[in-house]
Design a protein that fits this description.
Layout (H helix, E strand, L loop, with lengths): L6 E2 L3 E3 L5 E3 L7 E2 L10 E4 L2 E4 L4 E2 L1 E6 L13 E6 L13 H4 L9 E2 L2 H10 L4 E4 L8 H13 L3 E6 L5 H9 L3 E5 L5 H8 L4 H13 L3 E8 L7 H14 L6 E5 L14 H14 L4 E4 L4 H4 L1 E2 L6 E6 L2 E5 L30 E3 L4
């Protein structure tokens, strides 16, 4: 078991009632001495806010970048992934609930400084480091310090996040992220309120901010849950919003739900639901729409929006053809494909390799 840390946390203020208010996320938890926020890892101690998971991880693993999922960010390369514990949402369908809903300190089994993580990524030949498994917003200070250590070594950084963050910290957070996959869980306030104990509007604000005010590459994921957010009209409205507010070139991933956490009675998402959602998104005008958590090579392949020829052929996390030049242009017609690309795809493939960084 890795001991709890007491690293100073930022983004809080003292209220007239003697409590301190966390200003990191829209939840705005107000804490008396000794109390923790809903995320569990930001705590009031000694009249200040501390982060209890700085330097502590639930584990490290080298993954394919497509698993984040990011399909337009150095395809085929490896990414050193890690998370901590806790979350600032309370999604009943969470598929990493053993990490994100963790309260027990023994969930954190590995320790590493930001410099150790960056050095490990370089040693293993990883193109990037991903803050994932639970939301990096809640380990803000650890993520920022690690991102800076990675950049010092020429290593890219990736945030896998629900985007539930206030505007001021978002500005600082996404300034040091090279790519982000934001989980847009649904397109109704009802869904966010009933299933996530949160709100939709702040997530939409985060998406607009990343797309229009940062250099961070953006992709979006929506987990389709039968009976909750898979209605064709809701999907159409969401995709229209993406096209109008973010543009048609932001990749969208529709992924399949499986029963988990507090939604064990909800059936898995049929593959046809994902294919239908993809067809709706393409019909609305989105250029890059993918399916995930199912075997669907067509829905996992990147097509040139101009000539419609496949430029990155995928099957699960394996790449079988790569038809982009060094500038990310289609070799067939010369159209530039939005994203971050190299002259060739990486060769990491579908491997998943757990690693330990502490002794």
């Amino acid at each position: 078991m890795i001991p709890e840390s007491k690293h100073p946390a930022r983004y809080w203020r003292l209220l007239a009632n003697g409590k301190i208010e966390c200003t990191l996320c829209p939840r705005r938890c107000q804490l008396a001495e000794g109390q923790r926020g809903l995320c569990f890892v930001r705590k009031r101690e000694g009249g200040r806010m501390i982060l209890t998971t700085y330097g502590r991880s639930s584990g490290f693993c080298i993954d394919p970048i497509e698993k984040k999922p990011l399909n337009h960010f150095y395809p085929g390369t490896s990414v050193l992934s890690f998370g901590t514990a806790g979350c600032n949402l309370a999604c009943k369908f969470c598929q990493n609930w053993d990490i994100s809903k963790a309260r027990a300190q023994d969930r954190l089994m590995d320790a590493a400084s930001p410099e150790t993580i960056a050095a490990a990524a370089a040693r293993y030949g990883c193109q990037s480091v991903a803050f994932t498994y639970n939301d990096p917003v809640i380990f803000f200070e650890y993520a920022l310090d690690t991102a800076r250590a990675c950049h010092a070594r020429g290593i890219q950084t990736v945030a896998v996040t629900a985007g539930y963050i206030e505007p001021e910290p978002a500005r600082e957070f996404f300034a040091v992220m090279d790519a982000a996959n934001v989980d847009l869980k649904a397109f109704t306030e009802r869904f966010y309120r009933k299933l996530c104990a949160g709100k939709l509007a702040p997530v939409l604000d985060t998406l607009r901010f990343i797309r229009h005010e940062t250099n961070c590459w953006l992709e979006i994921t929506t987990l389709l849950i039968p009976g909750w957010n898979d209605d064709p009209e809701e999907i159409k409205a969401m995709c229209r919003w993406i096209v109008e507010e973010l543009g048609p070139d932001v990749p969208l991933h529709f992924t399949a739900f499986h029963p988990d956490w507090k939604m064990l009675d909800t059936p898995p998402t049929p593959p046809e639901t994902l294919r239908r959602a993809r067809a709706i998104a393409l019909d609305v005008g989105m250029h890059f729409v993918y399916t995930g958590n199912v075997h669907d090579p067509e829905g996992q392949t990147t097509y040139c929006p101009s000539c419609q020829k496949p430029v990155i052929v995928r099957d699960w996390y394996a790449i079988y053809a790569y038809e982009l030049d060094a500038e990310g242009r289609c070799r067939h017609c010369g159209t530039a494909i939005p994203g971050r690309f190299g002259a060739r795809a990486g060769n990491w493939g579908p491997r998943r390799m757990p690693v330990r960084l502490s002794a």
